[in-house]
Amino acid sequence: MNIFIEKENKRLALAKHAIRVADLLLDLGIKDSTVIVVKNGTVVLEDELLEQEDDIQILSVVSGG
Q1: CB neighbours of residue 23 within 10 Å
Q2: Where do the domains of the chain lie?
Q3: From first to last of its 65 residues, what are the pLDDT tens digits of the chain?
Q4: CB 51 within 8 A of CB 57
């Protein structure tokens, strides 16, 4: 699984057969309310299952006023 973490401008390659988005974020120490997760070009929710062949982007949520 190829993962890009926008905030750190870092790429990771993880050998995971299947993992939920929420569990991946927990493993990486990323708070789920601060990011949007994109799987193969599509925004996904926390319960989405990620597979080894997926391309994952973890994008920072930006808010302002």
Answers
A1: 15
A2: 2-60
A3: 999 999 999 999 988 789 999 999 999 999 999 999 999 999 999 999 999 999 999 999 987 66
A4: no
Q: Which residue type sits at 63? A: S
2-60, CATH topology level = Ubiquitin-like (UB roll) (3.10.20)
Provide CB contacts within 8 A for 42, sequence distance 6+.
none
Return phi, psi of residue 6, to 5°. -60, -50
Q: Is the dihedral of CA 20, 24, 36, 63 positive or negative?
A: positive
Rounded to whole angstroms, the Cα distance separating 65 from 18 reads 38
Secondary structure E strands in the chain = 2-5, 10-13, 18-20, 35-39, 42-44, 49-51, 55-60
- Per-residue pLDDT, 65: 63
